[in-house]
Design brief:
The chain is of the alpha/beta class and 375 residues long. The chain contains 11 helices and 13 strands. The protein folds into 2 domains: 108 residues, Enolase-like, domain 1 (2-Layer Sandwich); 230 residues, Alpha-Beta Barrel (TIM Barrel), CATH 3.20.20. Strands 5-6-7-8-9-10-11 form a 7-stranded parallel beta sheet, with helices on one face. The protein has a 3-stranded antiparallel beta sheet with strand order 1-2-3. Strands 4-13-12 form a 3-stranded antiparallel beta sheet. It starts with 15 loop residues before the first helix and ends in a 16-residue tail after the last strand. The relative contact order is 0.15.
């Protein structure tokens, strides 16, 4: 597969922790704007069908500039999905205590992500360039996968063909919500047309498989030259997952397994116990950007690879994750292509060219919807 195209001289970036710790923002005001993101079409996962989601945007101002961060917890998955709204409103009401909040929001990862990114945006004059780089200069891009949602065989084949026509060379397919035989049939059709050197296939089971059947299913799936599979069983069963990682013919990636773990010692313990091939980092779910940095540090120490992905954020959250992900200079294709899921989003400088996410430095943001009163 082609590498994410970076220059040979990789840039050096300021440590994120130092940036946040050394912020000297004063006399701040903040407010929270609530929006409902409506999906273009119902999107199925093994946990149910998504039609819309609530999002809260934190705007922080110093009187001259305004930074914006997105709080977008996922119902039934985010540890703070039922408490995020109350907490982000509390943060906004005491925004000048932001340094204390940055240290005490581990149980509220979506709120922490919103606060981090709003402050980083404000600190850079509110221009939505949180991490200036060759990416935001429009000189380099991020290689991403194409996401194929669950559905019946006809729907998924149509989705796959569309992604291939758009130029994607890495497909991520969600499985586990429809008949397993149908899913295998679809994979068989892909492999009949494209070999593993032409199309890379990633799978995401979202914990759908039963422990007693998982190895049998993974052995069946392995015949289709699968790059990796995310979270084959439900999170929390460390010993079972360790056995699966040891015996699986397909490399295992952890996703939901990371949610709720914020202590670095526990991170290390979990990774040492399970020893996955990959971890998937979603800042909204795994402790904000600072939490994602901790996961990277622990994974690097154990030789575990990783990639980052968005978690159904709007273009505001996607923009922040993409800029941060670029600074990590990870050559593995990232999972950042969710900006077109919704009927209404925010126009941004982000755009896709085949399977490359790019940033147009001359592009404009349209944030008018943020301040409109929804009827």
């Amino acid at each position: 597969m082609p590498e994410i195209f970076y220059t040979s001289e990789q840039s050096q970036y300021t440590d994120l922790f130092d940036r946040l710790r050394n912020l000297a923002l004063t006399n701040l005001t903040a407010r929270v704007e609530e929006k409902t993101m409506v999906f273009n079409r119902p999107s199925a996962t093994s946990r149910g069908v998504l039609t819309e989601k609530k999002v809260w945007f934190l705007t922080v101002s110093d009187g001259n500039f305004t930074g914006i961060g997105e709080c977008a917890p996922l119902t039934g998955l985010s540890p703070d999905f039922s408490t995020a709204e109350a907490m982000i409103r509390e943060v906004a009401s005491t925004i000048n205590e932001y340094q204390d909040w940055l240290m005490n929001l581990d149980e509220y990862p979506s709120v922490k992500f919103a606060l981090e990114t709003a402050l980083l945006d404000l600190d850079n004059y509110g221009n939505k360039i949180l991490f200036p780089s060759r990416f935001t200069e429009g000189k380099e891009a991020i290689l991403i996968n194409g996401l194929v949602w669950m559905g019946d065989a006809e729907f998924m084949v149509k989705e796959i063909n569309q992604k291939l026509e758009e130029g994607f060379r890495v497909l991520k397919m969600k499985i586990g919500a429809v008949d397993f035989a149908q899913e295998c049939y679809i994979l068989e059709q892909i492999r009949a047309m494209f070999g593993p050197d032409e199309i890379e296939i990633r799978l995401d089971a979202n914990g759908a498989f039963k422990t007693h059947e998982v190895i049998r299913k993974l052995e069946t799936l392995s015949s289709y030259d699968i790059h990796s599979i995310e979270q084959p069983i439900k999170a929390g069963k460390w010993d079972d997952m360790s056995d699966i990682c040891r015996d699986s013919p397909i490399p295992i990636a952890l996703d939901e397994e990371l949610i709720g773990i914020t202590d670095t010692d526990e991170m290390r313990e979990m990774l040492e116990t399970i020893l996955p091939a990959y971890v998937i980092l979603k800042p909204t779910l795994c402790g904000g950007l600072q939490g994602a940095e901790d996961w990277i540090a622990s994974s690097d120490e154990l030789g575990i690879n990783w990639w980052s992905t968005s978690a159904l954020e709007s273009n505001i959250g996607l923009n922040a994750i993409a800029q941060w992900a670029y600074t990590k200079q990870n050559p593995i294709p990232q999972g950042l292509g969710t900006g077109k899921l919704y009927q209404r989003n925010f126009d941004s400088p982000l755009y896709l060219e085949a399977d490359l996410m790019k940033f147009d430095p001359s592009g404009k943001w349209d944030l008018s919807w943020l301040y409109e009163i929804d009827k």
